[in-house]
Amino acid sequence: MTSSEHDTQGGLSERRFLVLALLNLVLLSGLSIAVQGHHLINEGSNQISQLPIVLRTLDPGYLAHDWYVNQMGGFSARKVFALLVAGFAQITGLAAAYLILNWASVAAVGIVTFFVTRHVFGGDRIACLMAGLLVVVLSPFTLGNVQSVVNIYNGLVPESLAKPLILAAVACALCGRPVLCGMFAALAALFQPLVGTVAGVLSLVTLLLMEFARPSERIGPRDGTRRGRLLRIAAGAGLLAMVAFFWAVTHQSDVSDELFVQIVAYVRNPHHFLPSTFGTANYLKAAIFLLGSILVLHLWRRSRAPDPAGQRRGLCLFMVVYAVLLLGLCVAGYVFVELRPVKEIAALQAFRHLFVWLWFTIIVLSLVTAELLPRFSGIVRARNRRPLLTRSKGVSPFPPAAAGVYARRWIDRDGRAEKLVILVAGALLLLLLGGLVLGARRWSLSVPYDEFALAGVVGVVVLMFAARSRRVSRAGLWVIPAFLVAGVMTVHGLIPLAPLQRLLNETVRVNVTLEQVAADPRNSPEFRSLVELSAFAKDRLPADAIVLTPPDFGSFRVFAERAIVVDFKSWVFHDPVAWFERLTDVYGPLGHSLGFRLRDDLNRAYADITDRRLSKVAERYGARFAVLDRSTDSEFPVLFETDRHKLVRLDRL
Asked: Are 354 and 329 in contact (CB under 8 A)?
């Protein structure tokens, strides 16, 4: 193999580097899912409201009497999601379909980031690997419930499938390809209409503003006239507009602005809609992060790194204009939700779009860090060559006085300094990854984002620091896959490390079947009681039964396979008023609490429900059974009882 086939940065040909890098991204995406948690369904996951639609798609007779499943039977974004999952499920099975699509969506975000950093921003191998790794683990703030570029803690959701397409749309805009930008944004809007449409609009408007404000700044190819470029922007906008218009027509609602905002923002989703509820700490973390992002953007703009295409200033301008538009959207998200409600603007959920700026920052941070690493390496080598390495007059040849001198002489010989750095960094990586597994319970953190992100950074340093050594670079790229294979073998008992196996089983959460979810010992006693009751209902209740349940137990539909009247999680986008009416009919008038605190208030109110109210609800909605708290005073006959709940038959009193 000739030297021209090797890249000077890592001693590997570009093709081999690409294969190994993508393999690492795919495997680390799987590790990220395992550490942060994957569930087919759990106590508070979004799958409570999505899985029944998937099951109805697989079986048209599933829960034929359930109001929510019937209401969501029309064509909608959730239906598109359900069709895709059901299509995979017919080939792989339902549990495997959820896990494979979740893994694919996370890996796709990392791979898109890798290629954008490499080919759009011109980053080297360190930068593109670091960006790909960080993008799936970093979570610097939770403003508007924005936690990371990929949302995998609750498993697969429509937004998981939309985000790789959204990032691809933004990447196409960065390349000056508005038609492709509109196409990818339109595809993303099929799964998540609001987020996909808004990201596409912001990207295309940014291109349009750049065309008029600073036409000299380069973004992608500049062939053709301004008129041709404007026509391409219009074509991209047209593709996106067709999808947006379709969703707007199919989801028309006569709800007034005030009532829509009251139900959707104050009752159901204040954590997405209401900036006044986000909390001071989250605003402080977001402000610190934004200030840091401005700093790294400035450092990259003033960078001395090669810029052969001359696009750095244009890319910086694109990101700044996009950020200004995003800031304006967030201001509108406050004014037209909390001050003067306008449902069309409220529905955009302005703060959910901040993940794009987080994505920009991760890429630029990786570029700046990659540029600084060689300087640090040069400093290390320069210090190792200082005259202090030679024995000076008056220095004893015996330890401990001369130990440091002789050690530094040994380190400096034949590039051992760089190899030592690799060994130390590799050991630190293994310690960090081991700490994630062994220390998760002790930290009492469900998602140790910061430690995991640090492990990813150290992993990149391990892979790429000693660029001169082809053998070490090759071995380094296989460190993480080898570690993952060893972990999988340990979990399945192929390596006889029983204590570590137990710790892994207790820490890594990948529940992919309903049986695994139900048997998970980390479930709350409340949830275990309801699952036990669901098993009885599935076995004993008629298939057409309609059941009253606590407001936070919408998963009864899945575990018991029986229809319910209403739950707090599963609401209907195109008819929120009908959901709201059912909620107040069953659980009583709503108090002044918001969101999930309101759900807790409804739980307490339901525990005190009277037989008279139960009879009234049963008559109106056709319910024949009810899941009650064990302490609830009721004269209805008890069919089954756990330590916390009971199932009663709603006979006429």
From this structure: no
Separation of alpha carbons 356 and 149, rounded Å? 7
Give the number of residues written for the chain. Answer: 653
Q: pLDDT for 155-208, tens place per residue? A: 788 988 999 999 999 999 998 899 999 999 999 999 999 889 999 999 999 999
pLDDT tens figures, 225-283: 778 888 989 999 999 999 888 887 777 777 888 999 999 999 988 988 999 999 888 88
**What angle in degrees, to the nearest 10, is found between the helix axes of 355-384 and 158-174?**
70
CB within 8 A of 350, min separation 6: which ones?
144, 329, 330, 332, 333, 334
For residue 423, give both structure tokens: 């060994």
| Collapsed DSSP state (helix, strand, coil) of residue 491 | helix
Compute how many other C-beta atoms are within 10 angstroms of the C-beta atom of residue 199: 30
Residues 316/300, Cβ–Cβ less than 8 Å: yes
How far is Cα 233 from Cα 178, in angstroms, rounded to an integer?
5
C-alpha to C-alpha distance for 134 and 117, rounded to whole angstroms: 12
Q: In Å, how far are 96, 384, 418, 472, 564 from 414, measured between CA atoms?
A: 50, 12, 10, 14, 72
- Is 641 in a helix, a strand, or coil? strand
Q: Which long-range contacts (C-beta less than 8 Å, at least 24 apart) are formed by 565-571?
A: 565/67, 565/617, 565/621, 565/623, 566/67, 566/68, 567/48, 567/68, 568/268, 568/599, 568/602, 569/44, 569/46, 569/48, 569/49, 570/48, 570/49, 570/52, 570/68, 571/49, 571/268
Beta-carbon contacts of residue 122 (< 8 Å; ≥ 6 apart)? 305, 306, 307, 308, 309, 311, 312
* C-alpha pair distances (Å), 332 with each of 258, 275, 328, 438: 16, 11, 6, 45
Number of H helices, E strands in the chain: 28, 7
Please state whether beta strands 625-629 and 563-564 pair in parallel, antiparallel, or not at all (unpaired): unpaired
Rounded to the nearest 10 degrees, what angle do helices 47-58 and 94-115 cross at?
120
Provide the whole-model pTM.
0.82
Distances (CA, A) of 64 to 53, 68, 490, 537: 12, 10, 44, 17
Beta bridge partners of 640: 647
Contacts of 336 (CB under 8 A, 6+ apart): 342, 345, 346
Q: What is the mean pLDDT of residues 330-345?
A: 92
CA separation for the pair 471, 150 (Å, rounded): 34
Alpha-helix residue ranges (DSSP H) falling in 541-575: 556-560
User: Where residue 26 falls among pLDDT bands split at 50, 70, 90?
Assistant: confident
**In this structure, what token pair is assigned to residue 482?**
């080898």
CB within 8 A of 345, min separation 6: which ones?
A: 332, 333, 336, 337
* Residue with tokens 């993508």, as numbered in its chain: 22
* Token pair in block for residue 116: 């954008």
| Six-digit token string for 93 | 């099975």
Tokens of 307: 């810029």
Tell me how far apart the terminal alpha carbons of the chain are, to the nearest angstrom. 88
